[in-house]
Amino acid sequence: MGYGKLNILIVGGGGREHAMAEAVARSSRAGRIYCAPGNAGTEQAAENVALDVMDFDGLIAFARERQVDLTLVGPEAPLCTGIVDRFQKAGLRIFGPTKSAAKIEGDKAYAKSLMRSADIPTAEARVFTEFADARAYLLTRDEGLVVKASGLAAGKGVILCDTPAQAVFACEKLMVERPFGDAGRTVVVEERIKGEELSVLALVSGRGICILESAQDHKTLSDGDTGPNTGGMGAYSPAPRATQTVLRGVERDILLPIVDCLDREGHPFQGVLYVGLMLTVAGPKVLEFNCRFGDPEAQVILPRIRSDFLSLMEAVVEGRLEDAAIDWDPRPTVGVVMASAGYPGAVEDGKVITGLDEAAALPDVTVYHSGTRRLDHHILTKGGRILTVTASGDTHAEAQRRAYQAADRIHFDGMHYRRDIAHRAIGDVPVDSA
Ligand code: AMP
Ligand code: GLY
Fold first, then answer.
1. In this structure, is residue 122 part of a structural domain?
2. Are 222 and 319 in a shared domain?
3. From the CA of 391, how far away is ligand 2's center (Å)?
4. Ligand 1 atom 7: residue of nearest CA
5. Kind of pairing between the strands at 94-95 and 70-73
6. How many Cα atoms within 13 Å fall on the side-chain side of residue 87?
7. Residue 51: exposed, middle, or buried by beta-carbon count in 10 A (0-12, 13-18, 19+)?
8. Is residue 374 assigned to a domain?
9. How far is residue 131 CA from its own chain's centroid?
10. Are residues 381 and 411 in the same domain?
11. pLDDT digits over 340-387, tens only?
12. Closest ligand by atom to 291 CA
């Protein structure tokens, strides 16, 4: 492949995919950019295509017809269902792991067994396929536990329990009531560990890895890190806790062993591997692996990449990561998620969003759309997480101030956003200065 222009298809329609579309559009090598299905934000950088992320036949036919050179996949559902295998079989280039490698996210019981075999630090866990067995085990415990649906549950299948009795109730819900269907047929019961959370993402191509700048996501709904877990209410990058020492340890003790293990098992990973970590007193431990960019982490990490984004994506697909070195904007970025009333539960769609242009006109501000759609000249809400308002600054405090100045210009009925995104980074002193 030469260094000509590339036509790109981005699969997905959230804030992450909007950030991917903007990163692609900044590349001098971008030809035509398509986003399926996209949203009212992605259409500023790409042409939206009315195809569902699970419509593999439709996406393959579109990629052929429009001479797409490279497809980038955002969400986990198509990856875990085998979109990459299908595109590869059709002779089309695609960024992301095959179905068997994506299992590291789609099957938490499998991820635990891989971690065990590769000796990767993680919370102690047991796997159950029968509720009676889970219950019998839990009745022998006397501490806080975490119960997780083994399959995909849109970030809602993890239940933190203070007592074994709550854990029994959680297992019964997942395994017997089955709100997430077969995703809850198997559960993972973990010891509850403590510490600050960190997301470390790496580009991976077989055994080659290129670690990205760190981020921290705020998972809970309300200020002070309280309330129910959500898909993420805001994020910032870099995370001061992710010192060079921590990152080198994560690379050596977690990333290299897991990609070697996947490769040895015959499931080489290609794409982005996301490690959700907890920094415990005993060192970093893995909470989860994801097989894709995070949302909202992508909205704060991707804008900081100064290198040519498409060349990086191509290096992954072509197995040339050894040569990859990324030039980063050193300035921190903070992203505040604006959500609909009721999120993470049921929400009402169709509220008119105002102030978007005013917010985006502020210095160093970008507003990424998640659940939005255009109706004539209005932009309307659609779903739970609606926007990620991001800003960069010389310090985390300045980036945070700018992000909130921008968010405060935006309005839609029932909107909710946290006021304290990045609070841990402000006045936070790195534990070492290596
Ligand atoms: P996960 O989707 O597995 O990352 O879990 C979602 C969230 O639940 C994490 O971001 C943590 O806040 C929390 N969590 C998951 N596993 C544990 C654990 N073993 N101990 C304490 N908190 C956890
Ligand atoms: N922000 C968490 C995730 O993307 O899974």
1. no
2. yes
3. 20
4. 158
5. parallel
6. 33
7. buried
8. yes
9. 30
10. yes
11. 999 998 999 999 999 999 999 999 999 999 999 999 999 999 999 999
12. 2
CA distance 199 to 123: 16
CA of 219 to the centre of ligand 1 (A): 10
Q: Which one-letter amino acid corresponds to residue 198?
A: L
For residue 33, being part of any structural domain is answered with yes
CA distance 337 to 292: 19
Domain range for 179: 130-185
**Burial of 311 by CB count in 10 Å (0-12 exposed, 13-18 middle, 19+ buried)?**
middle
158 lines ligand 1 (CB under 6 A): yes
Question: What CATH number does residue 48 fall under?
Answer: 3.40.50.20
What is the enclosing helix (H) or strand (E) of 284? strand 283-290
Q: Is 1 a member of any domain?
A: no
pTM above 0.85, yes or no: yes
Helix (H), strand (E) at residue 79: helix 76-81
The CB of 239 under 6 Å from ligand 1? The reply is no
- Residues 205, 263: one domain? yes
Question: What tens digit of pLDDT does each residue of 240-265 get?
Answer: 999 999 999 999 999 999 999 999 99
Is any ligand 2 atom within 6 A of the Cβ of residue 294?
yes
Residue 368 CA to ligand 1 centre (angstroms): 26
Single out the residue in 98, 114, 145 at which a domain terminates.
Answer: 98
Asked if 252 and 199 touch (Cβ cutoff 8 Å), the reply is no
Ligand 2 centroid–CA 65 distance in Å is: 33
